[in-house]
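Re: weekly structure request thread

Next one in the queue (145 aa):
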Amino acid sequence: MKRKTKKEVEKGDGNEELRAQLVRALADYDNLKKRVEREREEYEEYATANFFMRVMPVLDMIEQVQKHLGDSGLAIALSEMADKLKTEGIEAIEPRAGDVFDTEVMEAVEVRRGKEGSVLELGLKGWKMGDKILRHAKVVVGRKE
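Done, posted below.
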């Protein structure tokens, strides 16, 4: 077996360099896969939220009809709709009378005499998807006279 000269040893046979390139290429590919997956998930969330924002007024109308009719079949349908929305990560924001007014999830549409800083009445429920508020709950807030 022939001994390598100092120059040949310093130069290397190229395997180390090829190995390093392969490791970098694999790391780049792994990062690309992760980025594409993250972007796909973000797009799905955006599409879901965008669709819901378009149908939200229709859901509001159906809920108003249910308040006036009190139909049990419609109540079941609305319950099913709420379950389906929840599986998509969309949840209602429904503050009750007496809750503390929270500007993060509520919007005051009227102020009346009552307990300072508390919700007196829910005008229109809000919606959120994860941490993102799709619509703030519209509430009547109390204020001391």
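The chain has two domains: 13-88, 91-145. The longest strand covers residues 106-113.
Next request, please.
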